Each structure stands twice: as structure tokens, then as C-alpha cells.
Amino acid sequence: MLYILDDAPQRREFFHELAALNINRCRLVSMITALSMTFLYAVQALRYADAIKPSIQALYFSFYLAGMLIFIFLYFYLGAVIRAGRVSSYGFWWRFFVSILLVIVMGISFLNQQVNGDITLYLIGMATYFGLICTTMPEMLLTLCTVQGLFVLLLPAFQLDADIVTTHYANTYVVVVLGLFIARAQLVRNHELFNSRQHISQRSNELEGINQQLEYLNRELRIEAERDKLTGLFNRNGFDKLYAQLWLQASVSQAPVAVYMLDIDFFKNYNDDYGHLQGDECLRRVAKAIEMTVRRNNDIVARYGGEEFIVVLTGMDLDYKTCLFMADRMRTAVENLRMAGAHNVGTGYTTVSVGCSCMVPDATVTPEQLIARADKALYQAKTQGRNCAHFYE
After folding, report:
1. Among candidates 46, 48, 40, which has minimal Cα distance to 114?
2. Where are the alpha helices (DSSP H) in 85-161?
3. Among 332, 316, 324, which residue's Cα sits nearest to residue 355?
4. Structural domain spans, the chain
5. pTM, full prediction
6. 192, exposed or middle or buried, with CB in 10 Å at 0-12, 13-18, 19+?
7. Which of these, 340, 335, 341, lies nearest to 353 by C-alpha position?
8. What whole-number distance in Å separates Cα of residue 18 and Cα of residue 10?
9. What is the pLDDT of residues 156-209, one digit of tens each?
10. CATH classification of 236-391 is 3.30.70.270, yes or no?
């Protein structure tokens, strides 16, 4: 059948949705039923006041009063159940509502046989059940067989006219047959809506997954665009973005910013002597050595171009001595790699020259000017014999 789903979790979710739909409808109808019963009892009492025996009148009053109280109670209690989200109890409460509704309308219809022979209320109750409740066809048939069976069995005890009994039977069976078609159509419609929501949810999840993959790829592409493929450090593009952000932050906090320009000594000769592959390895090892001397997350280490590297430090007590100490620390880290460098006459190893400068950002200085000062300091370190650090004041 259409409402049977192959997937067990989906089947449970579908029936949970039906239970939630049913209990919300039952709560709405419970208050309408309570008000309707008050009106119907008043009409009944006024219209047939002289024709109704006192015993029947008492039974009428009992049924109507019990119905009004029960349905008012259900209106408020079902609201509490829905607000509390007690989904597991939904099925019990909407079935309880249906049972009470059908029992009361059947009882009043039986009493009507003593007055006017009318079963309209019973027919309305059955129609309400078909239009209100959405459940499986086996359960629907079981409910109808039980209720209609009791009605057929007990009606002759209250209505002695055989012709009227036959008419009532015909009317109720017409309502039952039409109601089954309505219930079936309602079930199919809810199943189709459920499938549509599931399909939309699945597609949404797929699109969300695709969007997440695209975001991940975009992040990777942005990272790759801002990273130097050879050394893994930030490239010039990545450095410019980070440096602008760092400068702005330092301007607000009035923290000193120090820039270090590093250049591998005699690197062109190194490439000529050892080849470009070995030159690439030299760049990677020098980059790693420089990076290891700078451990904080807000510091920047980048390959500035060719054999030049740039380091930016901030947020610490940076002065002349501190800047030179850090510069010499970077220089020593590269020297300690003990990589061959035949043109470095002083040590015989690959070395770097370092130029640095420091200032507190203000409106009179641009970030590019600080880099230019560090670059001038690097030039002075080169002219002083290389493998040394120089501070530009």
C-alpha cells in the first residue's frame, strides 16, 4: 500500500507526523465539539421539552454534560501534551478522543430514537472521524467495523420501527463507504506530501554537502593562492593581506611593529654551483629555520620574492636591542643548518643577512615605509660583509 515505506526510520517518521497531525486536529475539534454540544442541548431541550420523558431528559443531560466536560478537558490537556512534545503519547490521545466522540454521538443518537428518530449526530460524528483522522486503512476499517457493528446491533433496541431502522442502516453505510474513500484519499495525499518533504530534505542535504565541499575547496584555493608552493610560507599576496590587518590592529592598540628582511647570501652562486633543485631545497630549509624562530600565531613569516624572506613581529616589547636579538636569532638558526655554501668565505656554510626596523604605527607613517626602512637595513648588512644583522633607526 502507498503508506508503507521500505525504510524503517522513514516509516516511523511518517507515522509520527500523522500522529502529530491527528492530535492537533483533535484539539481544535474538541473545543468546537464542546460548544456545539452546548448549543444542541439547548435546542433539544427547548424544542422537545414536552415530548421528552424525564428519564430520557436526564440521560440527555448526562451525555451532553459529560461530552462538554470531557472535550473542554481534552482541549486544554492536548495543548499541554503538544507543548511538552510528548510524541510517544500522541497516538493514545487522538484514539481516546475518537473513542469518546463516537461513543457520545452514538449514545445521543440512540436516545433520539425515543424522541424524533434522528441519527444526524451519529452521521456527523462518523464524517468527522473520516475527515479528521489520518491513519492506516486496517486501523480505519477496524474502528468502523467496531463502531458500526455496535450501532447496527443496538439500534433495534431503541428504534422499534423496522422501516426507520432500515433507512438508518442505509444512510450510515453510505456515509461509511464515502468516508473510506475520503480517508484513503487523505492518507495518500499525506503520504505524497511526506515523500515530497523527504525529497526536498534529501536534496537540501545534498546541496548543503555540495556547498560545504565548495566552501572547503574555496578555502583551499584561497590558502593556496596565498601560500608559496615551494616553502609553504605566505607568498607576497598573502603577506600583503596579513600585514595590512596587523598594521591596522597595531594602530588601534599602539603596539610596536618590527619588520625583518632576510636575504640568502650568494644564492645565485649557490644555484650555479649546486643546481636549481638543490637551490629549491636550500630555500625550503632556510624558510623552515626562520619559521621555527617565530612561534606566535599573530607573527608573519613570508617569502617576499626569490631568495628574500620577510618577518613581521608585534605585540611585544620591541626596541633596538630586542629587534637585533631576534634578527641575530634568525641569522644563527640558518647558519646552524650547516648547509654548504662555498662562496661564504667566513663560514663555508649558507648564511643570511638581516635588516630590521621597528616603529609604533601612526598617521604619519605607512606600512610600506617600515618595509622600506628594513630593506635599507638589509642593504647595509650586505655592505658590511653579509651574515650579519643591521637595525635601521
Report:
1. 48
2. 90-112, 120-132, 137-158
3. 324
4. 8-204, 236-391
5. 0.52
6. exposed
7. 335
8. 12
9. 998 888 999 999 999 999 988 888 888 888 888 888 888 888 888 888 888 888
10. yes
